[in-house]
Amino acid sequence: MEKGKMLYEGKAKKMFTTEDDNVLLIEYKNSLTAFNAQKKAEMEGKGVLNNLISSTIFKFLTENQIPNHFLEKIDDNHQTVRRVEIVPVEVVTRNITTGTLCKRLGVEEGMKLPYPLVELYFKNDELGDPIITEDHAILFKWSSKEELDQIKEITLKVNSLLSDYFKELGIILVDFKLEFGRDSEGNLILADEVSPDTCRFWDIKSGEKLDKDRFRKDLGNVLGAYEEIWKRISSRDE
Ligand code: TMP
Ligand code: ASP
Known about the structure:
It is a single chain. This protein is an alpha+beta fold and 238 residues long. It is built from 6 helices and 14 strands. The chain has helices spanning 46-63, 99-105, 134-139, 145-168, 213-216, 222-236, and strands at 6-9, 13-17, 23-28, 31-34, 39-42, 70-75, 78-82, 85-86, 89-96, 112-122, 131-132, 171-182, 188-191, 199-203. The strands form 3 sheets. Strands 8, 9, 10, 11, 12, 13 and 14 form a 7-stranded antiparallel sheet that branches. Strands 1-2-3-7-6 form a 5-stranded antiparallel sheet, covered by helices on one side. A two-stranded antiparallel sheet has the order 4-5. Strand 10 and strand 11 form a beta hairpin. Helix 1 runs parallel beside helix 6 (222-236). It is globular, with a radius of gyration of 17 Å. The structure holds thymidine-5'-phosphate and aspartic acid. Aspartic acid (ASP) binds next to strand 4.
């Protein structure tokens, strides 16, 4: 796999071209950011763990008929993906209330929601990814009604699959963020990553946080939490 030109550097990943126009190489970085990169750190070993975790979860989603960009894990820090045009709408699904939902609306922390809450955010770092409605996305042509319906349907399926997957590992999937893209044929597919950077995971028994909230809230042992998630995921296939 030839590492070509760098197309893009984000907060947690770099993206490179390859010899195949439809295939990109993603490098998982050790950088951790929070609050739209106002808080930053380097954490040796994070890139390797997120590459392992996200690759394994995308493989599981592929086995469960969720169309997605993942192709192959190449080495410790790299994976190949199908090239997509990213839909500039981030999709957050919440099963339990916490985070910005509680800050924004003043609702109680830790309430189990009767059904998953799906929220849309405009993917724009300069604006700090503001929350939007479906109409904003349609009116400003970030997506279409049909695409948003499909996005919501896939998102709810992913929520159901991953909630069960993690429950078996003794973990509550509290909330998570997904991104979607359109491939060269215009098909809508799941993109980006699924990892402790983009999900909230709570240990079922102790309630311990096993995700990036340990960094956001200065709880310590951030890498240990990511390692614990990988330990449980990898134990599943043994
Ligand atoms: P929030 O409560 O901070 O809005 O986060 C909701 C979920 O989305 C949580 O699992 C973390 C994830 N998330 C990201 O992956 N990227 C982001 O930029 C933000 C704000 C949240
Ligand atoms: N991903 C965002 C950032 O890097 C926000 C977050 O995850 O808290 O700033």
